[in-house]
Amino acid sequence: MKFEDLLLETGGFGRFQILILAILCLPRINLPMHFLLHNFLAATPSHHCAIPHQEAFVNLTMEEVLLVSIPREPDGTFKSCEMFSQPQFHLLLNSSLQSENKSIIQRCQHGWVYDHSQLTSTISTQWDLVCEQRGLNQATATFFFIGVTMGAVVFGYLSDRFGRKTMLLLSLVCSVVFGMLSAASVSYSMLAITRTLTGVALSGVSLIVLPLGMEWVDIQHRTFTGILSSIFWSIGNMLLALAAYLVREWHWLLVAVTGPCLLSVVCLWWVPESARWLIAKGKVKQAHRHLLRCARMNRRKDFAVPPEALKRMATDKKPGGSYFYISLFRTPVLRKISLCTGVVWFGVSFSYYGMSLNLTGFGLNIYLSQFVFGVIEIPAKMVMYVLVNRVGRRQSQAWTLILTGLCIGANVVIPKSFTSLRSVVAIMGKGFSEAAFTTVFLYTSELYPTILRQNGMGYTSFVARLGGALAPLVFLLDEVWRSLPEVTYCSVAVCSGTVAFLLPETLNTCLPEGIEDIE
């Protein structure tokens, strides 16, 4: 008897599964509020050098003070990182006469003045992470994703070893603790450390929520479960825009996005451990108890599978037997799957965060842009619900990634003057990017056997978060060539999409329980 047959005995997909998925959607909503928080936490408003001794300009308007103190860009805007060493009063007579003498231009000497019309306070304005310190500002996101990368290794192994629910609870509690410590940061160093630790904790949530839900549903509802979980990510995207719009001071914004983790901790009380995992580990009594509860909630009073039958299902001959990441590479088919999924996950994450952490190009303010990005994702997921069941997981994964790359590449060659066309292409690219992310979560959870599923998800998440950590740093390449970041995102997405064709199809197949099912 397979576990899928057991689920049919307990009612298939009923009230029990709906309750689990509803509760697990709460932490899923909360994830993007942290993963994309960098857009607001480290947002850099328009700024210019602080001008000393402004009392000397009593007869000048603010615009005139800036005119004689700050050099201009070719488009007429004031430069953000340079100032004149001495006031250039002759510019009052003819502002078009910009000096060619570079010796009178210097870097900002007295700090910066920021435009607070949209953003009351960010880490950029608090610690002057602009100009020469711009790299530290982008590194904030990188530190967070380095934490997520480390957490993927830790929680991927621990959740296969000690159980899904236990590690999910630990992840949520740690997320609350480190999230609140981040909000209380008094220095950039403290923020960098606490955001890294928050990333470690949230990695467990990201890794465990979907597989825990998937392991309780039947084959017919697996795709629905994956897409539903992904839609709640998009809802979190939109709620982040609302939270950032209402709370414009970065300390309190961190509190606002961390607080919901407490609700998830409380609600997790009603979520059972994965019966698949319990059976694979030989803990058949606990598994039987949860299956009885499942049958009762689904109104299947005739459920009469004895614990002895569950013992025969256990793929792990020794109760408590353990596997580690090296097990993903010991057998030929599993090795190929692991290598290919690593490349695909890197490409998906790298291109997704490359687009999601860049809210410019829509001609909208950052709050509306974030909201639009969230809205765009939902129709993409609806389409994927149909496609992954019609054309299969492999084709869907490969082509969504390739089309993401082509959309990013198209905006490199489309002239800047074609604003509307560039916006449409960017929206399409964001939709394809989200479709690729939606598919890869579902696809990967179906590729690995139960006894290694969390190790597999941990490994792929590790590789993905490397992509997420590198994505914000690639923005700094625009100092070498303005289009180099986009060319990089495009190339990686297309190459990783091509690799996806090498993976096996999983449409309408049973979830593998042991390594022998894969081989």
From TrEMBL:
Phosphoprotein recorded as keyword: no
Organism classification: Eukaryota, Metazoa, Chordata, Craniata, Vertebrata
Protein name: Solute carrier family 22 member 7
GO biological process: monoatomic ion transport
Cell location: Apical cell membrane; Basolateral cell membrane
Family affiliation: Belongs to the major facilitator (TC 2.A.1) superfamily. Organic cation transporter (TC 2.A.1.19) family.
Database matches in Pfam families: Sugar_tr
Transmembrane segments: 139-158, 167-186, 192-212, 224-246, 252-271, 337-355, 367-387
Ranges for domain Major facilitator superfamily (MFS) profile: 87-507
Catalyzed reaction equations: orotate(out) + L-glutamate(in) = orotate(in) + L-glutamate(out); creatinine(in) = creatinine(out); 3',5'-cyclic GMP(in) = 3',5'-cyclic GMP(out); 3',5'-cyclic AMP(in) = 3',5'-cyclic AMP(out)
Keywords, in A-Z order: Cell membrane, Ion transport, Membrane, Transmembrane, Transmembrane helix, Transport
GO molecular function, one term: prostaglandin transmembrane transporter activity
Membrane-topology annotation of the record: Multi-pass membrane protein
A Gene Ontology term for the protein's cellular component: apical plasma membrane
Keyword field contains Hydrolase: no
